[in-house]
From TrEMBL:
SMART domains given in the database record: Enolase_C, Enolase_N
Organism (species): Endozoicomonas numazuensis
Keyword Manganese attributed: no
Protein name (record): Enolase
Residues annotated as domain Enolase N-terminal: 5-135
Gene Ontology terms: biological process: glycolytic process
SUPFAM superfamilies: Enolase C-terminal domain-like (SSF51604), Enolase N-terminal domain-like (SSF54826)
Amino acid sequence: MDFAITSLLAHEILDSRGHPTLEVECSLSCGIVARASVPSGASKGTREAMELRDGETGRYSGLGVEKAIDSVNGELAILLFEADVRDQAGIDNRMIELDGTPDKSRLGANAMLGVSMAVCRAAAMSVKLPLYQYIGGISANRLPVPCMNIINGGVHARWQGADFQEFMIAPYGADTFRDAVRWGSEIYQALKSILLEKHYHCAVGDEGGFAPSVSSNQEPLDLILAAIEKVGLSPGKDVGICMDPASSEFFKDEKYHLRTEKKVLSSAEMVSYYAQLVKNYPICLLEDGLSESDWGGWAALNNELGDAIEIVGDDIFVTNVEYIARGIEENLANSALIKLNQIGTLTETVDAVHLCQSCGWGAFVSHRSGETIDSFIADMTVALGTGHLKAGAPCRGERVEKYNQLMRIEDELGDMAEFAGRDAFVRPIEW
């Protein structure tokens, strides 16, 4: 059978932070070989599916993935030998059943995800379809707004800058995805010149954004506004701002500790803090504004700002339909971040996106801070029509490869391509 899996083979490679990860090859009886590589996060939700790491301190400081490789080359290869590569849901469910744990800790979510993505890519190749069309059908044509992380803070900047982890630009006023990428690149370069003028260091963080030693969490917003205006664009009209404070990282003893501003805020005070920022700046999306454990605070945050901007849950939902369903029921947000490796298989990721979309929620596709050059999420974003994604700054090869792939897709679609623009977000852009 031309669509039968004949082998699965994993290799240990390095991610963008220089840590080990795995690449999986899926070979078919027709001779096709497809590869996929697995990302890893720095700031992780406690309920994420479990990466399997070796724990041997004398090798890669315990971060090796030989155990996950053994899962692929051993049990998973045996399980899926001669399986029909087109049966994505069946393959993913068989892996989940074989693992038998609630968090995929026995075989490793990283092992299972590598197989899941490689199988999907092999299937697309076997039926001679682009990956985005194989996943989403021939009507998949919606190009997302690229939300580019151009100032890094928090753990991504080794706590040398802002407390908030990501300050992103969203060039939603462009006519095409390609124009949006150009705007993002021009703003990024303008920001660099502004930082140099102010004698800030211009080293970049894990996701390619600059990591200046700012004195507050408002200063990055002011710097970004200046960069947008420097290239002749209008903040709010042409380009919005998205933020991911990753607040679980500075939530301690039931309080939010803003190191740069020497403030310790309650949940209610943190909500008020964000409300003032939204009033003063063209912010269209706020991700992880509160801690993953602050469920009551999330309800208050969504009540305060959910009618005005997109409120995205990441650590609180971890791409898991169980937690997203609770968020929908309790009205905790209006969008969920979507990360393949938080849940461990493509099928579960698609289920999470479909749940969000069926309830009028946003689904915001995301890379991880430890990335590879694999552009799977670019195709997946178009396939699922999510309308926006974040893949880092327009800098560093593992980041720009996602944007480059989306430009290729837009070119391939030609007149059929539709750029999501201002409609990408679940709340109207009113600036």
